[in-house]
Structures are given as C-alpha cells and as structure tokens.
Design the sequence.
C-alpha cells in the first residue's frame, strides 16, 4: 500500500495538510488494477481556508471517498497534478522507477512539492520542503537536451534530466 499526505497551498502561500490518499497494492487477480481512496483531515475540514479539492467527487465533508479509477488508483484531481506523458517519462527516468512503480500514486510521491500550483504530496506527516528551481540555462540548451532525450532517453545524464524536469515539465491541472 502507498499512503500520501496531500497538501493544499493557499492563495497566501501557506501549506495546509488537506488529507490522505491510500492506494492498495495492485491486484494481480484483476490485471493489476488499483483501489484507492481519499479522506480529508478533520483539522482541514474546520479550517477557514479549506476548499473542496474536487467539488463533485470530493465534497468538503468527513468520510472516505473511493477513487473509483482502477487504472490510476487516485482521483482525477490528483492525477491532474502530474506532468503530461513526456514529463512523466522524465520523472520515471530521473527517479529510476521500476515498471511496478510507474503508477500515478508513485509518480505523485516523487513529484512531491515540485508540481505547479495548489497541491503537494509527501509520504510522511512533515510539510514538504520548498523546491529550489536552481539555475536555468538558455533556451537553446534546453531545446538540445530535449531533442537528445527524445532520441535516446537513456543517454541523458542526471544534470540534463534535472534541467529538463525543472524547466520543461509542467504539470497541468490542480490550479
């Protein structure tokens, strides 16, 4: 099982512990499908800055909300925090994730607070550390690194992967 704490960044920049995602290990009898759920933290429900993370599927209320998405194992609002397919490939390569961990919950765990916008994820109860974007090279260097990645992802070094991940991968959704 994988458990992730979900953090909501307020308009003022504060991080609130919003709730917890739990996803059971893949069920080999059902083709590796994932069963996941989310529950808001009680303190979040009472916080004046609390908002429903998905007003239709995760109303701001106590209880366990089944993800009902056996391919992903997480609610769509959380999967929207992830980069597109190209960016997911960078995450997988950067963190050398084995095939069994190339699922939405594991990708959210390695994404942590590096995503854009409102949501961040941790495996423990401690708030995520701020992410240092580091220096960005010129656009031509980024284009060359992206082309090398597209030609042969395995040939790219860690520095170029880190650069591409910081500069070229942009998670959608979760605004």
Sequence:
């Amino acid at each position: 099982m994988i458990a992730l704490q979900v953090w909501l960044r307020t308009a003022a920049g504060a991080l609130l512990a919003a709730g917890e995602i739990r996803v059971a290990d893949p069920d080999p009898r059902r083709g590796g499908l994932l069963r996941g759920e989310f529950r808001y933290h009680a303190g979040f429900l009472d916080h004046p800055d609390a908002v429903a993370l998905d007003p239709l599927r995760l109303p701001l209320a106590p209880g366990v909300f089944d993800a009902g998405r056996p391919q992903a194992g997480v609610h769509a609002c959380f999967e929207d925090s992830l980069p597109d397919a190209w960016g997911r490939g960078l995450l997988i390569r950067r963190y050398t994730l084995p095939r069994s961990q190339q699922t939405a919950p594991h990708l959210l765990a390695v994404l942590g607070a590096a995503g854009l916008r409102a949501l961040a994820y941790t495996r423990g109860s401690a708030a995520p550390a701020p992410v240092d974007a580091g220096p960005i090279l010129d656009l031509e260097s980024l284009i060359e690194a992206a082309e090398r990645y597209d030609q042969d992802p395995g040939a790219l070094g860690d520095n170029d992967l880190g650069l591409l991940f910081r500069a070229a991968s942009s998670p959608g959704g979760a605004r």
Remarks:
- The radius of gyration is 17 Å.
- The longest helix spans residues 139-151.
- Residues 2-168 form one domain.
